[in-house]
Amino acid sequence: MPCTSDFCSKHIYPDNYIVLCHGFLGTDGMMGINYFRGVKADLESQGCKVVVPKVSMTGSIDERAGQLNSQINDSLGLRPGHSMGGLDARRLVHMADLRYNVLSITTISTPHYGSPIASLSDSLGVLSRLQCKILLGLLSGSGKAMNDMTPQNMTHFNANYKDVAGIKYYSVTSKFDPRINHLFFISNKHIKNQSDPRYPEAFGENDGMVSVGSAKWGEYLGLEGDTSHIGVVGWGITGITAGDSNYDTEDMYRRLVHNVARKVEGKA
After folding, report:
1. In 64-103, which positions are buried (b, 16+ CB within 10 angstroms) versus exposed (e)?
2. Per-residue pLDDT tens for 5-26?
3. Which of 5, 26, 116, 189 is least surrounded, with the fewest CB atoms within 10 Å of its CB?
4. Is the pLDDT of residue 163 over 50?
5. So what's the pLDDT on residue 112?
């Protein structure tokens, strides 16, 4: 899917620090695996200053935001966050002990209105809610992340943590139609074909985990290419289990930081 909007113009890079906030079950550098595959190195090659904090893989939004806060010391910063990382960034800026200024938050496939997958509906045909909570607790000592991202709990989150004056908010997401043997085939169909009148934004076209409607927050920058929830961080599944496109993740992040360099820092 070619990008034709102003969002895709010639890249300009920001002067302020870029803090990449990873999502649920993510970390950075564990066993040599980078969550934002190739992104940090690519942005640094363009002269950007990039930080990738490590927070709990499955902790609550409050816990993860607190961990972010303890690892950031720079006076000014731009916060791109993938999935739950975008919620961590939104929560972070409401903390009373911030030692720095946040200029913008760009969320990527973030479930601002929740994800039905977080509710672990029986119709998914996977592990029970209790089994999943036990598994998540074993992974990181906390199984709170999924509960925080249900549509019901995100309604409360949005009421409690509104946008902060002076911070620019942007969002972007993707959608795709996976083949039957794709990791996200069942979840994609569940989100696309089910509905709940209480949470209309949480359903519809999606990336396998988060609907397009749920990912929209602040100034919406539009849809990315035909790729999945993990494709937008460089881990799309292609080949025999095709469903993701051969997506250029590095180019997307260049365009995201170009957007804030131009609109937030005023660079031309």
Report:
1. bbbbbbeebeeeebbbbbbbbbbbbbbbbbeeeeeeeebb
2. 444 447 888 888 899 998 887 6
3. 5
4. yes
5. 98
